[in-house]
Amino acid sequence: MKSGFLLFVIAAFAIAIGYLELRHHEERSVWQTERVTLTTRLEHAERQAEDYADKLSSIDHFWQNEQASTQRLAELNGQILDAAADLARLESDRAVADQRAEDALKDLKHQVRSLSSIEIDVAALDKRRGHLVRQVETVEERLQSAEFGAAERQKRAEELDRDIAGLAMRKETLLANLKVVERDNVDDALAKVVAKVEQGVPAPEAVKPGPPAPPTDVEQRPASDTETADGNATRGLYQFSSLSLDSDPPPQAASEGGKGGLPPKSGRQDVGQDDEASAANWAEDQYLLGLRLVSSAEQSSSTRELNEAILAFRAVLDEWPRDRDPMRWAIAQSDLGYALALLGKRRDDTSLLSKAVEACDDALTVIKRDRAPLLWAAAQHHLGVSLGGLADLNGDQDVKLRSIEALTLALDAFKGEGANADAKKVEGRLRHAYNSLPQPKADQP
Questions:
Q1: Of 118, 378, 402, 439, which residue is the least packed, with the fewest Cβ within 10 Å?
Q2: Is 224 a member of any domain?
Q3: Average pLDDT over residues 101-117
Q4: Are residues 250 and 371 in the same domain?
Q5: Total Cβ atoms within 10 A of residue 371
Q6: DSSP 3-state percent helix, strand, coil across the chain (nearest 5)
Q7: Conformation bin of residue 108: beta by default, left when phi > 0, alpha when psi is -120 to 50
């Protein structure tokens, strides 16, 4: 910017010098023209004087009136005096013009010296700029190394958080299975007591009549009970959100899936269709595998991993149906929408992006902010990414504004829950969305 300003100053000095030189030439031309004119007039006056003198001599011969001849001679003398006065004025103007030309030449020399000094200063500034550029490059290299170390530490911390969350999720599943087993044991005990009473055997004193036994079939429980149990584990499930995963998939997850990364259902069915615990563990493994694949795909330009993640999430949705497990169904639906959005953006496929928007909208019909704010924020983020990709392809500003609204809601929820790392990532996407909006044209003066 300083170099541009110095070039502008040099150009301004050059224009001023040219203008002074042009004015000098113009004034000199005007003076020469006036001098030629006055010289011509003087010569004309002299010729007229000669003519009048000739006429006067002829008049002396032809006219006897000496007074008229004297008067005409006085007039010729007056004209001569006027011409002489004009010639004196021209000489004065010429002297002034010469003085101005000399002053302009002095100014030009002074400006040339100033330009030389400016060029020396510019060279010194360029040298200092090169030194500063080298210093900045050194600082940037140090910052990059520091950021790389911080990213590695963050990566390890997130891996630990995901492992802890996985344990919490397994704990919730085991507790739910334990409650089912205890309830089944209570039902069996009550059934035995009722059978003894019907047979006429008095019930033991330790057994007191209690409330009706709950249904033994877990799938026949009201949906509200399942939603309440899921709501208590939402913070643990949020740790598996595909919003901020950035670690590579574990070797065991990759090996379980064979070629496509997705374990075949036949392997799970060999354990037994009635084994609910095995089915739950299989679904959790598929869900974690899908998130690992999405995380790995985010670090590269691969579409194969996104396809495998989509297959994994769809397999999970079969094990977590909405009517039986609405909260986990919504979580998997949200992450499925995010995987579809990433794949649609890489393939420029509006149909995949439309399916992603639909999946995120379906998830938000179940996930509510007051019950699961972090999961709700992640679903809003996934919806914002899906809408943003669709708006970039279609050029629809209304869809872009809806994307910005979803990202803003996600950012507000993350900040409210203290999820600062996720909030920063959403801020980056929100900033990109605002920058992609058409800028208003500046008013012309």
A1: 439
A2: no
A3: 86
A4: yes
A5: 16
A6: 80, 0, 20
A7: alpha
Looking at the chain, the whole-number percentage of residues with pLDDT higher than 70 is 69
Say which residues have a Cβ less than 8 Å from residue 423's Cβ, sequence separation at least 6.
411, 414, 415
Is the Cβ–Cβ distance between 340 and 362 less than 8 Å? Answer: no
From 418, 337, 327, 314, select the one nearest 385 (Cα to Cα). 337
The CATH number that applies at residue 133 is: 1.10.287
CA distance 315 to 103: 92
**Each residue's pLDDT tens digit, 315-338:** 999 889 999 889 999 999 999 999
What's the CA dihedral at 124, 127, 129, 131 to 10 degrees?
A: -140
Confidence of residue 124 (pLDDT cuts 50, 70, 90): confident
Query: What is the percent of the chain with per-residue pLDDT over 90, rounded to a whole number?
Result: 24
* Residue 122 and residue 237 in one domain: no
Domain end marker among 82, 110, 138? 138
Q: At what angle do helices 326-347 and 350-364 cross, to 10 degrees?
A: 160
pLDDT of residue 206: 35
Q: Do 108 and 252 belong together in one domain?
A: no
The domain in which residue 37 lies consists of: 2-138
> Is residue 327 included in any domain, yes or no?
yes
CA dist 181 and 190 (Å) reads 14
Quick check: 312 and 352 in contact, CB under 8 A?
Answer: no
How much is the pLDDT for 34?
87
DSSP calls for 303-352: SHHHHHHHHHHHHHHHHS-TTT-HHHHHHHHHHHHHHHHHHHHHHT-HHH
- Which CATH number belongs to the domain containing residue 383 in this structure? 1.25.40.10
CA gap 310, 291 in Å, rounded: 10
**DSSP code per residue over 202-265:** PPPTT----SPPPPS-GGGS-HHHHHHHHHHTHHHHHTT-TTS--SPPPHHHHHHTTTTTS--H
Whether residues 132 and 268 fall in one domain: no
pLDDT digits (tens, 9 = 90+) for 367-402: 999 989 999 999 999 999 999 999 999 888 899 999
pLDDT for residue 181: 65
239 and 130 belong to one structural domain: no
The whole-model pTM stands at 0.44
Q: Is residue 213 part of a domain?
A: no
Count how many domains the chain has.
Answer: 2
Higher pLDDT, 30 or 168: 30
In this prediction, residue 347 carries a pLDDT of 92
Residue 261: predicted pLDDT: 42
Last residue of a domain, one of 103, 138, 173: 138
CA distances from 256 to 54, 268, 312, 318 (A): 133, 12, 12, 19
Question: How far is the C-alpha of 173 from the C-alpha of 226, rounded, in Å?
Answer: 12
